[in-house]
Structure formats: structure tokens, C-alpha cells
Amino acid sequence: MKQKLKLSFDQVKNKFKIFFRNPWVKLSLINLGLGILFYFIVIFSTIKYLDVYSNHGEEIAVPNLVGKKSSVAKMQLEDMGLSYEILDSIYDPSLPNGIVKQQMIEPTSISKVKVKENRIIGLRLSKKTELTEMPDLVFKHVDFAQGILENRGFSSRIQYKPTKEANGSVLDQKQNGKSITKGTRIPIGSEITLIVGQNEVGVLVELPNVVGMNYQDAISLLGSKGLESISTICNDCENLQDTLSAVVFGQSPEYMPEKTVERAQQIVVLINAGANQTEEPIE
Q: For tag attachment on the chain, is the N or C end more exposed, with fewer CB atoms within 10 Å?
């Protein structure tokens, strides 16, 4: 039995010797070895390159940028080899525009974490003003209208206008003396003037005589009497200056001594730019 096993082993050994003596086999083995060696060289070189390219092992402490101007934060990050990205803005009326409110990677002093070079730090900046749409308040009750304005961040003041209808309701909405329409985007915190109707039917005031007066003086006199519902007709006024320098040549209702009118009565004032003529008042 042992003799047979020895014979079989010798036979296998001889076959291997014959196999490896073949020049094609030797060449194949050499190529295989060179391929394996080349593979390990490529893997090692790639790892080494990535280590160098990404500054593997070199870490940078993230600074605390909150409270700094965006320009200062940008320079500081660039000097440290870091990048930044402005993500969005946060409304804060107590701060000027462009102050860092938040940074998306916390400073190393808090997080105890460092980052690699060129890491992007996200920044959220402050903005002093924020625009929002003006609501439509016309014909809404003044208390309800003020609540809507307050909820949208606006302030309000009330200016009453004599009226025979819509008592306590908003007749007009203004900003800086000009009517403002629904949907107009204005800064939060703006003051809105609400022109509110005030029913003064039956309240009588003396009707002044404004014929021959300068237009501005006439309007002031009517206002001092509580007459604020005034319409102006000018025949030849081309601009605001013409209107302001015009002379009143007629009024309706017509002036009569000791004549009274309701405070809500509309007064029509007729003017000519630079004219001194007087015409019969209209009824």
C-alpha cells in the first residue's frame, strides 16, 4: 500500500515538473504576478493621493461667526481655508442687514469638532426689513381692521372723516399720505392710516365764506370748522403748484351770513389757477 502511494506521489510530482517546464505556463505565471503587483501599486498610490489631496489628518477649528458682519465672516473663513454659503435671511429689526444670525456648523469651541479644508459653512444673515402684503380693509369695521394690521406686523392710526353712511368702517387705507391697494408689498412695521367714517348727521357747523381766498387758506379754514368732506374743481390747473396757488372763485353750498350745514355735508370748492375772478356759486 505504501509503495503504491509513493508511486502516485512521484507521478504527480513529475507531472508538475513537466507542467512548469512549459514556457507558456512560466510566462502566464509571470504575467499574473506582475498583474497582482501592479494592482497593489495602484491601490497604494490612490490612497496616498487622496490623503494628500484631501489633507487627510489636517483639521481646522470652526470659528464662532455669530454676531459678525457677513463681509468679516467671509474674510475670516477664506483666511482659514474654509468656504461659506449664504443660506437665507432672518428678519430681525433690532440688527442691521447682513449680520450672521446662525451658522450651520457650530464652532469648535461648542461642538468640539474640527473640519477639513474647503469645508462649506452655511450662514443665515439678518435683514432689518421684511415685506408683506397689504390687506384690503375698506368697509371693514375699524376694530377688526386694526386687528388684521397688528397680526401682519403693521401699526395703525385713525383719521375720522364725516360720513352719512359706513359709520365706524374703513373708507380708505393710506401709507405716507397715499392710498395703498390690496396686495402691495410694504415693510413690516409700516404705519397705516385708516380713514374711518364717522356719522355726524344732524351735527351743524357754521359755513364760512372762502370765496376770494387762497386755496390753501380756504381748505384750512374749512377744516378748522370741522368740514372735511371737500371736493375741488379747478378749470386750468396743470400741476400741484397751480392748485396750491389758485384762488377760490366759488363754493357750494353758497355762503350766507349765519348759515349752518351738517358737518358731513360735502363742500365743493371752485378754483382757477392765479385767477381773481368771482363767479356765481353753484347749488
A: N
Q: Per-residue DSSP letters for 28-85?
A: HHHHHHHHHHHHHHHHHHHHHHHHHHTTTT--EEPP--TTSBHHHHHHHHHHTT-EEE
Q: What is the pLDDT of residues 70-101, one digit of tens each?
A: 999 999 999 999 999 998 888 888 889 999 99
CATH topology of domain 132-199: Trypsin Inhibitor V; Chain A (3.30.10)
> Residue 102 and residue 67: Cα distance in Å, rounded?
9
**b/e per residue 117-137 (b: at least 16 CB within 10 A):** eebebebebbbbeeeeebbeb
Q: What is the pTM of this model?
A: 0.43
Q: CATH for 205-272?
A: 3.30.10.20
Is the N-terminal amide bond of 208 cis, ω within 30° of 0?
Answer: no
**Which one, of 100, 69, 63, lies nearest residue 81 by Cα?**
63
Q: What is the CATH number of domain 60-127?
A: 3.30.10.20
The angle, 0 to 180 degrees and rounded to 10, between the axes of the packed helices 2-21 and 23-53 is 70
Q: Are 246 and 273 in contact (CB under 8 A)?
A: yes
Q: Is the pLDDT of residue 17 over 70?
A: no
Query: Residue 236 has which C-alpha cell?
Result: 386750468
3-class secondary-structure state, position 209: coil
